[in-house]
């Protein structure tokens, strides 16, 4: 249990402390691979004994010497975590809401800096996820592919020569790969270009989601762009398509930022400064306002308006101000109003600390 605690006690994963390419716009790059074992039903149809056997087989691979040359790993059974701890892992993007709600032999395998998360008995038997800071989608794929190869040698994957890897959801059949990039696009939102850009994105076979994936709202001007097609294209083709589209979005965001500086710099500076002031002194704040104010300050940092706060601090606040982490740090369940008060206090304390 002590090992599990270290993944839920801090808001910022170590991998997020690094700066990747285009990090003023691209928060992170992620590859997720879905795999299933040939001899077992998909998790939703598996018996308790079958899902237990899957977990045991996967646990054996975690001890593999070749896997441990990549990183050291810890297997955390979900049964060892309480509801708040599970929610914190969801807020840190280390497990999915579906796995957090799974009670039959669900587990997550995490490496030391939390850049690798392998979910067991979620929608599929295995969900291998690799995260990198900034725009490093190809690097994330190289790492995920390396891990997948090690598991494939040890486990009998469900694979069809014609259809590819077999998955619980038909939309993942084929390569089983989801490549996604998290983007901060405040200038495109403020200049009202975002709908046109995102409409064009969906027309080339990509999906747009919010901070926490499918069905979530794009709070704080954060958008996830990911592939929708997994069948009929190679992994490299999927990644190259995403890479090219994201490159164009980055260029549009940069152009929008420059346009705002040239045409409405005073208004932009006022917006950033007001949000910084409110975050520094507010006594109560809901999650939606916090996300928007933090977005304004992040833009101010990227444009050089604010120099005494780092984007890493804002990454940390993005998790610290979520409901699960607020309650985890308080050591008790909180009412919505109590969470809003604690959220404002955490933000004030953090900004005060980094500004000193």
UniProtKB/TrEMBL annotation:
ATP binds at residues 28-32, 93, 127, 178-182, 209-214. Coiled coil: none annotated. InterPro entries: Arg_Kinase (IPR023660), ATP-guanido_PTrfase (IPR000749), ATP-guanido_PTrfase_AS (IPR022415), ATP-guanido_PTrfase_cat (IPR022414). GO terms for molecular function: ATP binding; creatine kinase activity; protein arginine kinase activity. Pfam families: ATP-gua_Ptrans (PF00217). Residues 25-256 form the Phosphagen kinase C-terminal domain. It is an enzyme of class 2 (transferase). It comes from the Bacteria. It catalyses: L-arginyl-[protein] + ATP = N(omega)-phospho-L-arginyl-[protein] + ADP + H(+). GO terms for biological process: phosphocreatine biosynthetic process. PROSITE patterns: PHOSPHAGEN_KINASE (PS00112), PHOSPHAGEN_KINASE_C (PS51510). Signal peptide: none annotated. Keywords: Allosteric enzyme, ATP-binding, Kinase, Nucleotide-binding, Transferase. A motif (RDXXRA motif of the pArg binding pocket involved in allosteric regulation) lies at residues 339-344. Its EC number is 2.7.14.1. NCBIfam families: PRK01059.1-4 (NF002194), PRK01059.1-5 (NF002195). This is Protein-arginine kinase. It comes from Paenibacillus solanacearum. The lineage of its organism: Bacteria, Bacillati, Bacillota, Bacilli, Bacillales.
